[in-house]
Amino acid sequence: MLSTRIRRLICVSMAAVLAACGSAPVGPGFYRVERGDTVSKIARANRTSVQNITRWNGLSNADSIEVGQVLRVAPPAGTATAAAAPSRSAPAPSRDAAPDTPPARAPAVSLIWPADGSVIRGFDGKTSKGIDIANVPGTKIVAAAGGTVVYAGNGLRGYGNMLIVKHDSEYLTAYAHNRALLVKEGQTVAQGQEIAEMGDTDSNRVMLHFELRYLGRSTDPSRYLPPR
């Protein structure tokens, strides 16, 4: 038991945990970003251009891709570019594997606020991968949506006592800096169920750092939360 915990503390990283939670196979014409990848490298491997990758995926910055993010690497079927593109630009699907093509728009996920308090920091996708909610120590933290706890611990530097809840094959939420964790890995939780108490572990103030990930990519949680 101890050796398992030690291995986790040594090997786990935030990117690896979050990417692993959305690591289902991707369909033909798509690619899941791995550690060390760049848009230029992905474009070369798929015999296309950086401009195409940027345009097909609506990237405002070609340097902003993240581990676990799913990118389109071949033109959409039926386009003029698709007709001219060589068939080898994307690997052929396995006969037994069903395509796992991301939708054109991310489907809405029904979230509730994970804690009462003031939002003291918003999402920018770079230095802030989520939102920070401040309140007093011990403030109740609840699951923003139902799902399964896939991580409960303090082995991720900078996040303190942290929970990650996987909601389906596409979405997960993360809850950091907790004073106490009230659920365990593998446990199923319902939306609104208390899962932690707000604290200041690995933080200079009492707050909840709350993240939402879609297909491994950080997404602004405030877009999915109801108005207060």
From TrEMBL:
Keyword tags: Signal
One Pfam family from the record: LysM
Biased composition range(s): Low complexity: 81-96
Gene Ontology CC annotations of this record: cell division site; cell outer membrane
Signal among keywords: yes
Top-level lineage group: Bacteria
GO molecular function per UniProt: metalloendopeptidase activity
Residues in LysM domain copies: 29-73
Cited CDD domains: LysM, M23_peptidase
Signal sequence interval, chain numbering: 1-19
Region called Disordered, residue ranges: 81-107
Family, as annotated: Belongs to the E.coli NlpD/Haemophilus LppB family.
Protein name: Peptidase
